[in-house]
Amino acid sequence: MDRPLLLIDGDNLAHRAYHAIPKTVTGASGQPINSIVGWTNMLLFVWEAEQPRGVYVAWDTLNVPTYRHKLWPDYQGGRVFDRELIQQLDILPDVCRAFGFGVGKQEGYEADDFLAAAAQAETKRGGKSLILTNDRDAFQLASDDVTVLWPRKGISDIVRVGPREVVERLGVLPEQVPDYKALAGDSSDNIPGARGIGPKAAAELLLRYGTLDRVLEADARGLAAQGQQLLAFREMTCLRTDVAVELPESGPPNWAAAAARLRELGAEALAKRVEERASRLG
């Protein structure tokens, strides 16, 4: 249990790869595989740097409403994905299975929920987790046993975010992040937050009152009138852990099977790279 479990926000990484690598990177049939190539290269880099005991990858289910959409119909509104990206998002979970990784994906839940559930399960078994994502929702999971790996630029500039770094970045404790986002809002998810309250004011309110509930009880800044909506925002931003997860066994990826799957997709150069690194990465 001295090596951490690597938890990956699959969609988050795939989006970064898709926009970082030209769509001219194509497979055997001419279809873009730029996201698949970039995603796998990022994985190879992090595996070599962290040497985790295993990998679990969480995925969104696109075009299927979740309970969050029921709470706020405009949740994540305005997001439009290229067809070429969606095609690769459909393929990548299968690539992960070829590597022998654990995979989490289920209608009604988001990748973040699987990350939260997997981190909780790993902590309960006495292990530690690394969460690879640049989604700030994961900050609420930071603890002595859970560290967020935050890619800033490219694949090699990664910042480690623990409880102290959450406070430095947001001004609140990890467990206050859902309350903070409910008050401050989150433009990436189309959550407006409280009227007249920005990030600084949200952090100040939580520093004084501790929780959103107490902010509303005190009617601080007249926010009680928005109470029902703000509580719904908090429920939306609070990650669920009631989804079933199956953690991977400890051990190296199945490099040979992964190389074979990549070769089927027409990623010949990447398949060779995986094979060449297999003996060194273990």
Q: Name the overall outline.
A: globular
CATH topology of the largest domain: Rossmann fold
Whole-angstrom Rg: 20 Å
Which spans of ≥5 residues are poorly predicted at pLDDT below 50?
none
Could you name the CATH homologous superfamily of the largest domain? 5'-nuclease
Quick one: CATH class of the largest domain?
Alpha Beta
Give the neighbour order of strands across the main sheet: 3-2-1-4-5-6
- Supply the CATH architecture of the largest domain: 3-Layer(aba) Sandwich
- Count of β-strands: 6
Q: How much helix is in the residues? A: 40-55%
Task: Give a brief description.
By secondary structure, the chain is of the alpha/beta class. It has helices at residues 10-20, 34-50, 67-71, 83-99, 111-124, 163-170, 177-184, 199-209, 212-217, 227-237, 255-264, 268-281, and strands spanning 5-9, 54-58, 102-104, 129-132, 146-153, 157-161.
